[in-house]
Amino acid sequence: MASSSRKTRALMIQGTGSNVGKSMLVAGLCRAAKRRGINVAPFKPQNMSNNAAVTAEGGEIGRAQALQALACGRDLSVHMNPVLLKPESDQGSQVVVQGQVRGWLEARNFRKDRGALLAVVLDSFHKLAATADLILVEGAGSPAEVNLRQGDIANMGFACAAGVPVVLAGDIDRGGVIAQIVGTKEVMTAQDTAQVTGFLINKFRGDVSLFDDGYAAIADHTGWTGFGVVPWFHNAHLLPAEDAVDLSDASGGAGYHVACPMLSRIANFDDLDPLKAEPGVKLTMVPPGKALPGDADLVVLPGTKSTRGDLDFLRAQGWDIDLQAHLRRGGKVLGICGGYQMLGTSIDDPQGLEGPPGSTPGLGLLNVETVMQPRKTLTRVTATHVPSDTPLDGYEIHIGETSGTDCATPFARIGSAPDGAISPTGRVMGTYLHGLFGSGAFRSAFLAEDGHSATAADYALTVEQTLDDLADHLEAHLDIDGLLAAAGPVEAKP
């Protein structure tokens, strides 16, 4: 609980729907608060994402909260995102509680059982509050989903239990923003409505003054305070995307061509963001139903939350045939984490840790085999890329152990321990290391192997500058002082 000398306050940003920009708004507000000298921390009670980050204590949280923590100038903590759902199928998800895997639940059962997690959520919230002067909380989905209100821990269920004021964000880019906000108030209970202190509009394109009457109409219909209209932030692509829904099918310009198939349970796809930001690199995200581009220099098989399931998905798209053709043309393939496992000869899951127990033949492009194990590896690492003898920073987040003759030629070394494998031709590579392209020296050395000149710029500096630009953007268009004043005191934990 917060100490008697610390007067911690909290404010929650909820949205009228998914993907309205809550994560980015909170990140920008975190940076704006930090620049005011406020000791600020991010919090999201419940997140659903296969894009996870590893904390210092060896747990995992959503990568959106990792970005928000960076905006705050804080190290990551499992208490920033105490409940993380990692979808493995259309029906169920792995449940991570305070950084550690708690089990697996079908969606229907989670809806029934999630109320029991409120105590955990509040525990993390108060632990975090004891370390900060301001907590900026991000909701999930929308409070208008009143069919999900019972047992809710992500939106109004948390806000009411913790006594945190709420600001509702609407997305004008998708249209109907007046109805989004006014309609949300209309369907909520009086108790929930009373928790809302104001609203803001996000993703406006064009002349903001054209929405003056609409803005006034929302204020008149709701009685809530308006905190501003945020124009579209054009540098958003320089920040890590939280959800696969944010991925475009293509980005970047001409030059060295990297292609990545969009697996159905793609995970930690922000591994590719530094390549997307690299001048002279074209990154193509290939959606289902489309062939891998024939002019690609490198195909990256990304991480996945369901390796065997996504291997079946990959084959259903014909991407296995495309990979063979790509290699015949002299292209290269890099598998990261689950993508590395797919490249081997077999993936065995005797305990059914990622689905029904069984074994699936791999793509056979590396002479390695993977056996899924209950123990989950969660660690940050400093490694050395073996072919170029270049240092890199990354992290591991996986189940499964991989072995085979190609492991004798490792992709990297973590201290004295080998990681990954390289085929005898050198054109098929696999590694468990996420985040590797963020290291400028490695990225430059890796691309140089194919004769491509890279900047070797520190991607982390790009993200830091973009967070500052985002804070400037919000400062210009939102009443930041008003938002901070709307934060309510965090009551001591009972």
The gist of it:
With 494 residues, the protein is an alpha/beta fold. The chain is built from 15 helices and 30 strands.
Structure, explained:
The mean pLDDT is 92. Helix 6 (177-187) packs parallel to helix 8. The radius of gyration is 23 Å and the shape is globular. The chain is an alpha/beta fold and 494 residues long. The chain is built from 15 helices and 30 strands. The chain has 2 domains: 9-232, P-loop containing nucleotide triphosphate hydrolases (Rossmann fold); 244-458, Class I glutamine amidotransferase (GATase) domain (Rossmann fold), CATH 3.40.50. Helices cover 29% and strands 28% of the residues.
Number of strands: 30
Averaged pLDDT, please?
A: 92
Instruction: Outline the low-pLDDT stretches.
Output: none
Continuous helix count: 15
CATH topology of the largest domain: Rossmann fold
Number of domains: 2
Instruction: Indicate the overall shape.
Output: globular
Major beta-sheet overview:
7 strands, mixed
